[in-house]
Design a protein that fits this description.
This protein is of the alpha/beta class and 312 residues long. It is built from 9 helices and 12 strands. The model has no long low-confidence stretch (mean pLDDT 98). The structure holds NADP nicotinamide-adenine-dinucleotide phosphate (NAP).
């Protein structure tokens, strides 16, 4: 069985092959630009930004694995074979990294880390308190999927009164779960720190906007580790400048990289990170891919299967 890899360029192929030799020794791993590759041999493809028309040339392709969490870079191919399932990158290390990052972000917003760092940079001695502790701070997690659910559990375990919101109702001990558009306003009204881990779909693009931000209590804060397109940045900045929001921690932007002259880089109430919340190593990705292929070949549903009808 041949797995073709397009991720990290030709220079990364030897590393991929070494990792797959460990996790799936029977897979033959070939480079995307290998001149000796017979397209008919390819059964699985691990890809990042495949050129349009290339995947359809593998007539025996059975499974596509996205080398990143998103699949838009695959779906934009107008010749994409519609019958071939797509798996989004994931795995235990991604889940753990995201839970760590969400804890970091929520505690940073709680304790005003931006002000601590700024004071240090300015050599400014300031004694300041914060309005509440973790046990008094309600955290609302938007998106209770592969990453959101463990993140919500991690926050709950840190002592934050935690609630969650998803498309279909989830059940999570100690976490009150809200579902769908009808319960969104109530969810927001009970959230002091909003954590976004939704996928990007028609329904979620621009979901953090002037109207929804206004539903958060005064002094609330926002952590976005989902997708940049979820947040209307001008509305977020306006809510910070008016004092309605106390702070924001943003890891994702639209477009990326965030342009150097964008005012949010220097906003006194915003912490910017550079889409680093949960970056799996090649070894982690090879392990996840090997497991997904093995499950698929056993006739099981692989993890993180993209649902074209739902759009995520
Ligand atoms: N910053 C980073 O480094 C980084 C790294 C990896 C991933 N990400 C991003 O993290 C996000 C979450 O990824 P994931 O793997 O956890 O996604 P996922 O497993 O697909 O989970 C998505 C969750 O969002 C909910 N949802 C989807 N559409 C909704 C809607 N219209 N209204 C309410 N809830 C909705 C789903 O509800 P149901 O439970 O009802 O299906 C599910 O709970 C994605 O945007 C991904 O791109 C970021």
């Amino acid at each position: 069985m041949t797995l073709v890899v397009k991720s990290g360029g030709p220079g990364a192929l030897a590393e991929w092959q070494a990792h797959f030799a460990e996790f799936a020794p029977r897979l033959e791993v070939r480079g995307w630009d290998d001149p000796d590759l017979d397209p008919e041999d390819v059964r699985h493809a691990l890809v990042w930004e495949p050129e349009p028309g290339r995947l359809v040339s593998f007539s025996n392709l059975r499974l596509i694995i996205s080398s990143g969490a998103g699949v838009d870079h695959i779906l934009r191919d107008p010749y994409l074979p519609p019958h071939v399932p797509i798996v989004r990158m994931g795995g235990v290390s991604t889940i753990a990294h995201m839970a760590d990052f969400v804890r970091l972000g929520v505690f940073s917003l709680l304790r005003d880390m931006k002000r601590i760092i700024t004071n240090q940079q300015d050599r400014h001695w300031e004694e300041f308190g914060v309005p509440r502790s973790s046990v008094e701070t309600r955290v609302g997690v938007m998106g209770l999927g592969t990453l959101g659910l463990p993140a919500a559990m991690a926050l709950r375990d840190c002592g934050f009164p935690t609630i969650g919101w998803s498309r279909r109702r989830r059940t999570l001990p100690g976490v009150r779960c809200y579902e769908g558009p009808d319960e969104f306003a109530e969810f927001l009204s009970r959230t002091d720190i909003l954590v976004n881990l939704l996928p990007e779909t028609e329904a979620t693009r621009g979901i953090i906007n002037a109207e929804t931000l206004a539903l958060l209590p005064v002094g609330a804060a926002v952590l976005n580790a989902g997708r940049g397109s979820h947040v209307v940045l001008d509305a977020l900045v306006a809510a910070l400048d008016s004092g309605h929001l106390s702070g924001a921690f943003l890891d994702v932007f639209s477009p990326e990289p965030l342009p150097k002259d964008h005012p949010v880089w220097a906003h006194p109430r915003v912490i910017v990170s550079t889409h680093i919340a949960a970056i799996p190593s090649r070894r982690d990705r090879a392990r996840f891919t090997a497991d997904a292929i093995a499950a698929f070949e056993r006739g099981e549903t692989p993890p993180n299967l993209f649902d074209p009808a739902a759009g995520y």
